[in-house]
């Protein structure tokens, strides 16, 4: 009832709103009145609790949301999480939530109301997805308690039901014909494959709704007695199944090359002997090739399959072609399909890379492919068993040495030099590129008061940075406090610290454009005054990418003061515009598909710490000064991407960032109105890009949150 009253009040007040185009303050005032009434309508025991997302991944639970009391975030003492009647633990509370701050600007510290909870479910707890309940119990001031119950669901199972074809749809696919219907040769080396796995693999090929395929099997002298009889029987039953029995085991690469000799298809697909294809895998490949005939290498999304084949989980929803991501991990992996001519050009599989022979092949193939494609559908099921990397990364440790060797060879072929190391997680790699030049870096820091934050920032740069060829340009813009000018006097005594003065109203884009014109460096680094350097080699780790001719901009890994993630790359389309991926995640979290801890391509990075070459900044015309407060950095990166440069996130340049400290949270009417104006402009200017989707994200992932969870219905 109260909700209806507040809506009626809002409508009647809006009728009084002036028609003058400058009346944005009135609309913002009405919005605030409405949101205040809505807050009090929603609160229970003085608390509002919202669950954004609950994810179940095997026996691991993840949940995110926000909570506020009437006294703000300081009034929330604890958020306990229960599964049925079992206490799992307490959520981590106090993450930045700019959306909540904009919605409830009248509540103290509303911008720090976010929480997350990640926990493994203990083995002694039994639960049933769709039946078991999660209970969130919020304790507020004076011990007041509010509880919210949510059903625990298997979101991936629900995604499968919504997105994958049923029996009727599969039958329709079998009747589909294309203008281009190439033969696809599936290459499978076998060696002592468990009988059940081998049968299920072959049956998954026979079940394909696209019929112009052949399965080429090369057995490496298996000892298991059933292998030869089983493969020979299938070959007799279907002429599309071809088998060669080798006199000795040539290893994965040698056996795979032997299988390729059986192939007559124009396309070669890689299928492991213990894995399974989705029944619609090949028809999706052919559909894509009809739409994009210049494609020479193509990969799909994948998931994990339990050992007994009964359960699918852990989907890998991948980005589109991302060359730097590939240098950090073999993210395309399955299902990989190559044009035969490309495979012949690069020479097939190479010996000496067993365990990472596919990684080596993909690196060589993508160096030469005219066009690389990605199908954002789960076409491949990677089986987990005791000898599989899908279950145990330690089951085949030799693969990681082979992968590092493949990457080192890749660098030599493309004319780059660097050292390849393990990135700290098996299957992920760090390349430290050789800095052959040491250009002057101009670090540009706009500032308005906040003397203590500026001092901390400058001190961290000057005392911690191992790269010394830099200058710092402090851009004074309307400071009032004497201590700020004392800081200027203290630090400009350093030979490489200079003070500039911007005598106009604050406009982040204009201030930085002004400073860039005065900068002497070949490389520009835009840095917020509320940052603090953590890693001494932060400049080298950004510079090693910024000087590469194909790279347009580089961003760093930024943490909130509490150690949680503030920035690790920008995702386009989140909340209708853009947002920082993994925001609020724990500092030690690997992130989705390990992204927090590896160099990878993104569409944009934050201007709080953004490096690029001066020539690129000039080529794109600098920051667009129509964005005085927000989205100027993302707009800059999208202009860079339009020029076909890549944007990079590196986790090896680490800083603290107390977000928006320089101007505070957008927590009153004027700032809220400014943000809305910049948001509208961004959406109008880049709607065609937002509609297309972020190529470095995935259309199966949510646009409602920053946590890479699966998109709901």
UniProtKB/TrEMBL annotation:
Q: Which residues form the Glycosyltransferase 2-like domain?
A: 185-344, 442-621
- GO molecular function terms noted in the UniProt entry: glycosyltransferase activity
Q: Which Pfam families match?
A: Glycos_transf_2
SUPFAM superfamilies, sorted = Nucleotide-diphospho-sugar transferases
UniProt name for this protein: Glycosyl transferase family 2
Which keywords label this protein? Transferase
